[in-house]
Design a protein that fits this description.
Oligomer: single chain
Structural class: mainly beta
Order of helices and strands: HHEEEEEEEEEEEEHHEEEEEEEEEE
Number of helices: 4
Shape: globular
Radius of gyration: 21 Å
CATH architecture of the largest domain: Sandwich
CATH class of the largest domain: Mainly Beta
Number of strands: 22
Strand content: 35-45%
Number of domains: 2
Largest sheet: 9 strands, antiparallel
C-alpha cells in the first residue's frame, strides 16, 4: 500500500507542476497577460544586487485580512506550443530576519524549464508565462513580502490574492462513491477509508478547493495538529473522475506551552499541510480519508478587491 501511495503521490506532483503553465496565447508580452494572472494592484518594486533580483510586494489594507492569502508565483515569459505541458524548475526557501521579524522568500532555480515531448503543429507556437512551484503567504498589510530570485535568468514574480471561506463540514458518502468502483477495489477502499464527495456548481471555474481532514477534540491552549502519513491522487478506467486520498493514524502533536487555567476547548484539529485541488464544474471532488477522521473544506476565490 505504501508503494502505491508513493507512486500516486509522484504522479500527482508531476500533474500539478505541468498544470502550473498559465495558458494565455499572445505574440508579445503585454500588461493584459500579466493582469490575467495577478488579479490585483498590489504595489511591487524590483531591485538587483549580488546576483539576486529582489521583489518587494506592499499590500493595501483590507477588511478581515485573515480571510485572504497571497500566492507567490515564479514565472518566465517564453515561447511555447499548445500541446505540451511546461514548468519552471525550482523551489522556495523561507528565512526569517531576526531584526525585523519579516519572512524572506528565496526562489532557488537555475532557470531551466521542463516540458512534455508531444509532437505539435508549428503554427501553435505563442508566448505565455510558464510558472514554477508556488508558495502561499498570509495577507498582512502591515508587512511587505520580500522575494528574491536569481538575476539574469529572466525569472519574474507574479502573484494572486485569494479570498478563503470558512471551513465547511462534509457528510460521509462512502457507499455512493464505491458504487462506481470495480468489485476488487470496493473491499480495499471500503475497509481502509471513508469516502467524501463534494458537489459544487455556484463558484468560479478558477477557484480552488482546500480539503481539510481532521479530528474534533477538546484541547488546551497549545497549537495542535494531526500527522499526515500520505496523500495524493488516483484514477481508474471504471471511475469517471479523479479522486484523492489522505492517510493519517489520527495521532495529535502540539506545542508545549504552559496553560495555567487548564481549560479545554473543543476544536477541529487538522494537518499542517491540507490538500488544495483544482475545481471543475464537470466533476465532483472525491476524497478517501483514513477511518476515524472527518472532512471539512474551504473555497479559495481569486479576488479583485484591491483593484482601483
Amino acid at each position: 500500500m505504501k508503494k502505491k501511495l508513493s507512486s500516486l503521490l509522484l504522479l500527482a506532483m508531476a500533474l500539478s507542476a505541468i498544470s502550473c503553465s498559465q495558458r494565455k496565447p499572445a505574440s508579445e508580452k503585454s500588461t493584459e497577460a500579466t493582469d490575467s494572472i495577478q488579479k490585483t494592484d498590489v504595489s511591487q518594486t524590483v531591485t538587483e544586487k549580488d546576483e539576486l533580483r529582489k521583489y518587494v510586494l506592499t499590500l493595501p489594507s483590507l477588511q478581515n485580512e485573515s480571510q485572504y492569502k497571497v500566492e507567490i508565483i515564479p514565472s518566465v515569459w517564453m515561447e511555447v506550443d499548445d500541446c505540451n505541458g511546461y514548468g519552471l524548475q525550482g523551489k522556495f526557501e523561507k528565512s526569517v530576519d531576526l531584526e525585523t521579524g519579516l519572512t524572506n522568500l528565496i526562489f532557488k532555480s537555475d532557470g531551466e524549464v521542463f516540458q512534455t515531448a508531444m509532437g505539435c503543429p508549428t503554427d501553435s507556437m505563442h508566448y505565455e508565462y510558464v510558472t514554477g512551484p508556488t508558495t502561499l503567504m498570509d495577507y498582512d498589510s502591515s508587512k511587505p513580502i520580500n522575494v528574491e530570485v536569481p538575476a539574469g535568468k529572466n525569472i519574474e514574480i507574479l502573484h494572486t490574492v485569494w479570498k478563503v471561506s470558512e471551513m465547511i463540514p462534509v457528510a460521509q458518502s462512502t457507499e455512493e462513491i464505491l458504487k462506481d468502483f470495480p468489485e476488487y477495489q470496493k473491499k480495499l477502499y471500503g475497509s481502509t477509508y471513508e469516502g467524501y464527495m463534494i458537489k459544487l456548481t455556484n463558484i468560479a471555474e478558477d477557484s480552488k478547493i482546500e480539503l481539510i481532514p481532521g479530528i474534533t477534540k477538546a484541547v488546551d491552549c497549545n497549537e495542535h495538529w494531526i500527522t499526515n502519513q500520505g496523500s495524493g491522487s488516483g484514477g481508474m478506467v471504471e471511475v469517471p473522475y479523479t479522486f484523492y486520498f489522505y492517510e493519517s493514524d489520527g495521532k495529535i502533536s502540539s506545542t508545549r506551552m504552559a496553560c495555567p487555567d487548564g481549560k479545554l476547548t473543543k476544536k477541529f484539529i487538522h494537518s499542517m499541510n491540507p490538500m488544495t485541488v483544482p475545481f471543475k464544474k464537470s466533476e465532483p471532488i472525491v476524497i478517501f480519508i483514513s477511518k476515524g477522521l472527518e472532512l471539512r473544506y474551504r473555497i479559495w476565490d481569486k479576488t479583485e478587491t484591491n483593484k482601483k
